[in-house]
């Protein structure tokens, strides 16, 4: 029984962490969008919105983890 509770606690902790990370990613992307609004609207913005932000490396780590642990085919990611 304690093992089940521990797994449930870990799942809840992971979900809470994912909510936190998602919020920071959205903040970074929204900030970058606002800072580059004119070039985006003119079609001249040529990079991902996460590029050049504090969380760019975090996004790469999450993508790598998805390739290794979630998806069988890296092309899906």
Mean pLDDT: 84
Shape: elongated
Distance N to C terminus: 36 Å
Our count of helices gives 3
Radius of gyration: 17 Å
Largest sheet: none
Look at the helices and sheets and give the structural class.
mainly alpha
pLDDT < 50 stretches: none
Measured as a percent range, the helix fraction is 55-70%
- Portion of residues in beta strands equals under 5%
Number of strands: 0
Q: From N to C, what is the helix and strand string?
A: HHH
Describe the structure.
This protein has 77 residues and is mainly alpha-helical. The chain has helices at 2-35, 37-41, 56-69. The relative contact order is 0.09.
Show the helix and strand layout.
Elements (H helix, E strand, L loop, with lengths): L1 H34 L1 H5 L14 H14 L8
Please describe the structure with a list of short key phrases separated by commas or semicolons:
mainly alpha
Brief synopsis:
By secondary structure, this protein is mainly alpha-helical.
């Amino acid at each position: 029984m304690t093992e089940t509770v521990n797994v449930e606690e870990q799942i809840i902790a992971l979900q809470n962490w994912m909510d936190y990370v998602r919020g920071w990613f959205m903040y970074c992307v929204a900030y970058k969008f606002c800072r580059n609004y004119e070039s985006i609207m003119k079609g001249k913005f040529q990079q991902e919105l996460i590029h050049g932000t504090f969380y760019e490396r975090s996004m790469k780590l999450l993508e790598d983890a998805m390739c290794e642990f979630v998806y069988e085919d890296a092309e899906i990611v």
